[in-house]
Design goal:
With about 525 residues, this protein is mainly alpha-helical. It contains 21 helices and 8 strands. The strands form 4 sheets. It has a two-stranded parallel ribbon. It has a two-stranded antiparallel sheet with strand order 3-4. Strands 5-6 form a two-stranded antiparallel ribbon. The C terminus is likely disordered.
């Protein structure tokens, strides 16, 4: 997608959600529309012009919107109507999106223009690329969309594009949209007939921010496997568990769940070279299901991640506009492609999957609690005759925090997409609530990340002793993680800081050498996703 110079080329070929996420997260990346894309956008605009010339009624082009769909807009008012549409829909509330999220929203809409269904002019598409490239950050409120096109979020972008609305300045303060454009060397965009609806009638918030969340979940899948591998070694050292037969190729080959096999292979790779591979060691015939059936649980979540990635790419590369500019027939066609039901349900399913992931993780943490209690008892017995009590590296009730996070995950697993009321005089009588489902998923990813970090810290605490490691060596991958987390534990940080820093450190480890050298390649990308060419920054 790129040319190696930090340029992201948007053509007419299929784009990947994970590429969109990486590009949106890097403000140094510049975006360019290919010649082919601009030609396709131009052909799309010609269809709009033909509709204008025909005088036929076309939704949103020369009619009002929603319940006013059959009310004509006078030809002399059509240009003013474009401004009214933007102002009317700029009605979002709540906290503002972060800069990377704003970039993802604009980028997703720009990609949508390049698919040839919107009917905007090529210069309008280039203007959106200019806003990205010159660092214009519209102030986009998070709430407002019911998932039948992210109207309010996209209207906040369009408002700035026409010199209105608000933007976030380089100092983080809100500035008028016109000033933000001027500071970037841009003059406000003058909208042509039909462009206002084209700018707002898309699911670019759900797509763009969904891609960013996908990027986090891909890493979370590796974190889950890493925490599991650590817990296997901890239960082996302290409780006679750590049976690796459930991770064997024979078990994985017996059931065609690709994500399951990926998780099992990751865990075995992390444990490679360690004591758990010793065929002579005494081990329980079967561990608890939170260990034994972890490949099935983690693997199912990996399959859901693949389903989310597929759904994002359907929306990203599709033409979700209404009316749809159909170049083949030369007509503007009303339809419902703005209803991202597949994507909304993928957001829903993953929250349920993460809750199950959390159940398994919390149960493993619980099984690691007795050896922690024994260690603390030894510390207490040593603190006699005025001897100071040894400070604890691992806060004692992190298990309780994990239990609270699990309760949150279970709560967040409830359906979000079934609650939309009917709107606009009962014309808009079904909505997906995809943005709400996405926002709940963001919360779930955050809670699951903390819970898994607690599991990793707990296991690392029980595996940190040098003497025990000399007799019962850790796997190459798990040893690297324990070494890293042991340094954090030795700092005796407050629980909140400890968990946050552990999450950050694990994220770095999983994104660098540990993931590529020890887990073996692209990690969660292998979970049903095909290899792809990447743009090169």
């Amino acid at each position: 997608m790129g040319d190696g110079s930090g340029t992201f080329l948007i053509g007419t070929a299929h784009l990947r959600a994970r590429d969109i996420a990486e590009a949106a997260a890097d403000p140094a990346v510049k975006f360019v529309l290919s010649v082919d894309a601009q030609e396709l956008i131009g052909l799309s605009r010609e269809v709009v012009q033909q509709a204008i010339d025909s005088g036929h009624r076309v939704y949103g082009l020369n009619t009002l919107l929603g319940s006013g769909r059959d009310t004509a807009v006078e030809e002399t008012s059509i240009l003013a109507y474009q401004v009214q549409v933007v102002r009317y829909h700029n009605s979002g509330v709540g906290d503002l999106l972060g800069a990377d999220e704003v970039r993802a929203v604009i980028l997703a809409r720009l990609v949508g223009f390049s698919r040839g269904g919107s009917g905007v002019r090529p210069e309008t598409a280039r203007f959106y690329a200019d806003m990205l490239n010159r660092g214009v950050v519209p102030a986009i409120p998070r709430e407002g969309s019911v998932g039948s096109a992210d109207l309010t979020q996209l209207a906040a972008v369009a408002a700035v594009a026409i010199g209105e609305g608000q933007a976030v300045g380089s100092d983080g303060q809100l500035v008028p949209g016109g000033q933000a454009l001027a500071d970037a060397g841009l003059a406000p965009l003058e909208l042509a007939p039909g462009e206002a609806l084209a700018l707002v009638s898309s699911n670019s918030y759900s797509i763009g921010v969904g891609a960013l969340v996908l990027h986090r979940i891909l890493r979370l899948a590796d974190l889950a496997d890493t925490a599991l591998a650590l817990s296997l070694e901890a239960t082996a050292r302290h409780d006679g568990g750590g049976n690796l037969s459930p991770f064997s190729p024979a078990v994985q080959a017996a059931k065609a769940v690709h994500g399951q096999a990926v998780t099992a292979a990751h865990v075995l790779r992390l444990l490679e070279g360690g004591w758990l591979e010793d065929s002579e060691r005494e081990v329980s015939v079967q561990d608890a299901l939170s260990f034994r059936a972890a490949p099935q649980t983690h693997g199912a979540v990996r399959c859901q991640i693949t389903a989310l990635e597929d759904a994002l790419e359907v929306e990203l590369n599709g033409r979700g506009d209404n009316p749809l500019t159909d170049i083949g027939s030369g007509r503007m066609v009303s339809g419902g492609n703005f209803q991202p039901m597949q994507l909304a349900l993928a957001f829903e399913a993953l929250r349920l999957g993460l809750a199950h992931l959390g159940i398994s993780s919390e149960r493993r943490i619980a099984k690691l609690y007795p050896p922690q209690r024994r260690i603390r008892q030894r510390h207490l017995e040593a603190a006699t005759n005025g001897a100071p009590l040894e400070p604890e590296e691992l806060p004692g009730l992190l298990w309780y925090s994990a239990a609270g996070l699990l309760s949150e995950l279970k709560f967040l697993a409830a359906p979000a997409t079934l609650g939309a009321p009917t709107l606009s005089a009962d014309v808009e009588d079904h909505s997906t609530l995809a943005p709400l489902a996405l926002q709940q998923l963001e919360r779930s990813v955050d809670a699951a990340g903390k819970l898994l970090a607690i599991e990793a810290l707990t296991a690392a605490y029980l595996l940190g002793g040098a003497e025990a490691r000399a007799v019962r060596p850790l796997g190459q991958g798990t040893a690297a993680v324990v070494d890293s987390l042991s340094g954090l534990l030795a700092r005796h940080l407050p629980a909140a800081a400890l968990v946050d820093e552990a999450r950050a450190e694990l994220d770095v480890l999983l994104g660098s050498g540990l993931n590529s050298a020890l887990i073996g390649g692209p990690g969660p990308h292998a979970a049903g996703s095909t290899e792809r060419q990447r743009w090169a920054p």
